[in-house]
């Protein structure tokens, strides 16, 4: 079993290091090729993923058929369609791979059993999701208070390695601009 999840858990809740090894058997390793849709809008969701390697995109398709990227998941990040995983009848978002991707997957039934068997994992997931929620709020504030040009600059300067990992059309949809607008912003950024 990959050591990444072990290290991630121990980093957030070091007091339980001796117990962490016992939780790893709840997970299964899976691999997905690039451009694989892991979760479809409208589907039932019963899996939660920890990214070992690769990059995933969370997006929805609007009424005109345009993909709108709202989030990414890279190494050591958790991802699922949360509302559907928690009980909504169907997913409102798609999750697809942008690269060949390896994950550790846990099914909902095993996830619930994990939390019952090892209550400290509730503390771990609480910390994971509090950090993710805080980052989401910061993104929303940044997105709402700066121009698209400034948001592009912010993202390119704070996450330059991430920007290199996905196609321009994905980055443009994340910012909420056209490919032509992204080309102009990219040219201005590089000069």
Can you put this structure into words, describing what you see?
This protein has 191 residues and is of the alpha+beta class. Helix content is 47%, strand content 21%. The strands form two sheets. Strands 1-8-3-6 form a four-stranded antiparallel sheet. A hairpin with a 5-residue loop joins strand 4 (56-61) and strand 5.
Percent strand: 15-25%
Mean pLDDT: 92
The number of helical elements comes to 9
How big is the Rg?
18 Å
Query: How many β-strands, per DSSP?
Result: 8
Strand order, sheet with most strands: 1-8-3-6
Overview features:
single chain, alpha+beta, 21% strand, 191 residues, four-stranded antiparallel β-sheet
How is this fold's topology laid out?
Blueprint: H1 3-12, H2 17-20, E1 28-32, E2 37-39, E3 47-53, E4 56-61, E5 67-73, E6 78-79, H3 82-85, E7 94-97, E8 101-107, H4 108-117, H5 120-145, H6 148-158, H7 160-163, H8 168-175, H9 179-190
Antiparallel strand pairs: 1-8, 2-7, 3-6, 3-8, 4-5, 4-7
Pfam families: cNMP_binding (PF00027)
Domain Cyclic nucleotide-binding: 17-115
InterPro entries: cNMP-bd_dom, cNMP-bd_dom_sf, RmlC-like_jellyroll
Q: In short, what is this structure?
A:
The protein is an alpha+beta fold and 191 residues long. 47% of the residues lie in helices and 21% in strands.
